[in-house]
Amino acid sequence: MAGRRRWSTEEILDAAAELLRTSDAESFSVRKLAAALGTDSSSLYRHFRSKTELLRAVADRILLAAMDGHRPEGDWKQRVTALALRVREAFGQQPQLAAVWGRYASSGTGSRLVMEEVLQALRASGLPDEEVPARYHRLAVLIAALVASEAGVGAVTPEEHEQGVELFRVAVLGADPARFPALAHFARDVRPLGADRRAAFEEILAAQLAQIEAAIRAGAPANQ
User: Fold this and answer.
1) Global pTM value
2) CB of 60 within 8 A of CB of 106?
3) What confidence tens digit (pLDDT) does each residue in 77-126 have?
4) Theoretical Cys-Cys bridge with 125: which of 76, 92, 97, 105, CB 3.0 to 4.6 Å?
């Protein structure tokens, strides 16, 4: 009787990424992945010691794909912006994995490539070396939060989106002016969270980069 097929690490990661397209990190399990592959969990644990380690590896492949063919161009702000947009686009194609990246982080090659580019860009900005790690951390938190937030919106179904828009309209246009005067005043101009996501992403990132640039000019330390 033939034994069960042995799956390679890359094949396991491919299957995990596919499973995560239709589920999230909470409902994902090694048992479900093993069932999808027609094997048992113990065979997968030979490749990954835990669910968390597996999820980190899947998310890291998104970062690796984002960095594929990347060539730094422009000044330091352009480099950081270009990198952030590449990461945003990569996770936009698999939005369920954005939350995985934000929650579990990664120490793989993709993560190191992203870190290296941001750190190099910050050094090129003129920041003193002792200020670079703190500024890097703030940028990393911001980019991860923006990517995860946008991906969360992008992961909803068209039906869920329409429901959300309708609930937003009811909440805003139906607000009692006596209790919510500002909301009533701006009701026809306030937009749902999912609107103009790309512009909001770039504007928030640009504001953070401008803050760093101002701090460089003023010679202020990162904790001020």
Assistant:
1) 0.79
2) yes
3) 999 999 999 999 998 888 878 877 877 767 789 999 999 999 999 999 99
4) 76
Q: 145 vs 30, 138, 204, CA distance in Å?
A: 26, 11, 11
pLDDT value of position 155? 62
> Which residues, including other chains, have CB under 8 Å from residue 84's CB and lie 6 or more apart?
143, 146, 147, 201, 205
> Which amino acid makes up residue 171?
A
How far apart are alpha carbons 223 and 174 in whole angstroms? 43
Distances (CA, A) of 121 to 39, 82, 126, 139, 188: 45, 11, 9, 12, 41
How far is Cα 51 from Cα 206, in angstroms, rounded to an integer?
A: 36
